[in-house]
Amino acid sequence: MKSPAAKKLFVMMVLEFFIWGAWLPLIWGYMGKDGLAFSETQITWVGTAFVIASFLGIFFSNQFADRNFAAEKFMAFSHLVGGLAILGMYWVKDFPTFFGLMLLHSILYVPTISVSNSIAFTHLKDAQKEFGLVRMGGTIGWMLAAWPLYFVLEGKAGAEAVAASRNIFLVSGIASLVLAVYSLGLPHTPPKPAAKGEGSFAWLRAVTFLKKPFILVLFIVTFIDSTIHNGYFLMAGGFLGSSTVGIEAKWIMPVMSIGQVAEILTMAMLGWFLSRMGWKTTMILGVLGHAARFAVFAFMPQNQTMIIAVQVLHGICYAFFFATLYIFIDAAFPKDVRSSAQGLFNLLVLGVGDLAAKLVFIPLQGHLTTDGVVNYKELFLWPTGMSLAAALLLLFAFWPPKDLDAPAEVSH
Length: 412
Known about the structure:
- The protein has helices at 4-31, 40-47, 49-59, 61-67, 71-88, 95-123, 127-153, 158-165, 167-183, 202-208, 213-240, 249-299, 304-309, 313-332, 338-367, 376-397; strands spanning 369-370, 373-374.
- The protein is mainly alpha-helical.
- It has two domains: 1-191, Growth Hormone, Chain: A (Up-down Bundle), CATH 1.20.1250.20; 202-412, MFS general substrate transporter like domains (Growth Hormone, Chain: A).
- The protein has a two-stranded antiparallel sheet with strand order 1-2.
- Helix 11 (213-240) crosses helix 15 and helix 11 runs antiparallel to helix 16.
- The radius of gyration is 21 Å and the shape is globular.
- Residues 406-412 have low confidence and may be disordered.
- Residues 1-402 form the Major facilitator superfamily (MFS) profile domain.
- It is found in: Cell membrane.
């Protein structure tokens, strides 16, 4: 990253995902019986805040960022108000106010994931080579927040743990306010008026692109892959801590974080892989990463070493599919709807996919549990099969046009 713009964008990504990483891994224990004592239903409602925000974002927030406000000012406003909202959660203990603040934070935060991508793509000279390096900052930011907080709070119990856990909202809120100020110094990214003859609704124009077969296929595959991706986080913790695998509870998060270290390395090399393999092959490998990981879970559950080692595939799963997806969207959609297009696909990644994972895998795991013992082999064969189906769909039905702004060696 030689250009000053790329360095600024890298720091933007660090702060963007630091905000999220500070609270997400630890909020669930804080809301539980040893903390706020919320019911399972109430905790589920808090967990749906991102889903709700991803739906609203495509119609409102991303529309504003595309057509009405400079993107950097949108970022500044969203992180200012969203930061104050999550700061308020430090003091709140009743469910209605707690949920209201989380919903407000989510509605303002979720669209900034799409908008930060759009800012990056606008100002990178070669997004296919540089975006992986810039987006790598997001993974680093997440780890800088989540890891220290986890190890500081690990081992604490009772009132001490509850008091300490509240600090996640202070850390996240302060980071959000810092990003609000920092955003004002980002490269200017003005709104893009509707093209002549086009309607004023950027989100509606983005949706019309689903009429293109290659976009529709990618949309369907993104839904499947997002469901599998979110399902991994629902099922992996219990599996790793089961008597079959036998990883101690305090080591489950570090083991799962191996994938994030691998993600950093894969992100750094993404441009190199894209230039040699092209859109299709890169995304197929990203989807197949899930199939390989879940197949190991299904057929080698007693091989703890292999179970731990296969976590490195997370880097391929995320970078090769999701990061490549964001680069492809930037190349495939017109400039005046790119934030809305990013939001449309993030609707799947952060919203519908997350909801589908909960609706599919939680009941499925319950159905495959007998006397407290989960039939993990059958459970993990489901996401393995879904991954293979998605990869085949890409292989046989994803045909982007040859004149798309793609790597030189795109294979069709």
